[in-house]
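An instance follows:
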Amino acid sequence: MKRILLLSACLLMSCTFAFSAPDREHTLKVYNWADYIDEDLIPEFEAWYKEQTGEEVKIIYQLFDINEVMLSKIEKGHEDYDVVCPSDYIIERMLRDDLILPIGRDFGDTPNYIDGNLSPFITESFKDIDGSGKNASDYAVAYMWGTAGFLYNTKYVTREEMMSWGGLANPKYEGRIFIKNAVRDVYSPLLTYLRNDELKAGKITLDDIMRDSSDESIAKVETFLKSISKNIAGWEEDFGKEQMTKEKAWINFTWSGDASWAIEEAAAIGVPLDYEVPQEGSQIWFDGWVIPKYAVNKKAAEYFINFMCKPENAIRNMDEIGYVSAIYGDTVLDYMTDGNFPPINVSYFFGEGHDSVCVNPVFYPDQSVIDRCHIMHDSGERTQLLLEMWGRVKGDNASSITYIIVFAAIIVIITMAVISIVRKNRKRNKIKSKKRKTAR
């Protein structure tokens, strides 16, 4: 009888799973960064896809916050995501390990919005991605891009001080600096400062620096970060921009998109923030759409990527998330032009004749800034050494805030344990009391 009941239960569970499992032929699984899309576009894509193909599709939209977590799910877990949005160096790794599929451009009667709308600057930059013999542009389509630099409070910090990494060593910034908790985004730009003499002498190039993960360079970065440990208030993944708007910190090494959001938010409450890319150099970063090796609905994935490259959708995404799209053209330029900013040279992005355009320089840096930036590269087997260095630096540089949080957590755990013990003792005493009354 028990065996029959067990078999019946298993059968019922199997049926339940079968009914709840998605119909993958008409499902598109998208894996993206948090707060990185205008979510109203999701149902709009479903309707647009039906119009273009005559087929139904339903999006399952999931979020990640660390490149490596996303990669592990695909590499080790063989997750069947149809579209994901990794950063440039992860695209390199996925190309090297054959983890992504080529993206087709044949959409029948539907226009190809990908090739016609991507900025030539993006296309040229993608040539620097090490595709291990493959053309990265065949396997990835850029989504958003930007730079890494210093967001700073002009009330306490001067622009001149933020023109160099060396400015972070000033003792007046003790406990006032937040740094992005992303080893690659900090390591390579910092190396442009630590190897700047060689760079100026022409002995090495920016590309050489972005590929450098030697023991010597790792040690240099570790030494510098430890030397400014008193100034570092914490390592942040997403809260640094809010700390800056609240003036809890004065400097934040961060991405241009976060800086743009913080500057706008802070201005509304009278906090003066600005953004600067250090003179020694920094990185240009890209996040791009790819189709993983284990994708099931490749057709819908290609249409989704194509849909995101429509200029009007690019503008909506930029409005929603505060980052800059890889899409260019008159529609985008007209929307992004703002007479409140002085004219700068953005011909590298929008093409010839755009060397004096009024746009936000945090969004579209002047050509002179772009000239001192370069994309990062994957460190391959050396990545583990970078992570170990990062762990040592963060461990040694744990701020007072970190200790307060840890101490508070310990107090909470102890308190909960004491409460639990007290409750158990009271319960035991009640039981003993009842037994004594019963015995009487």
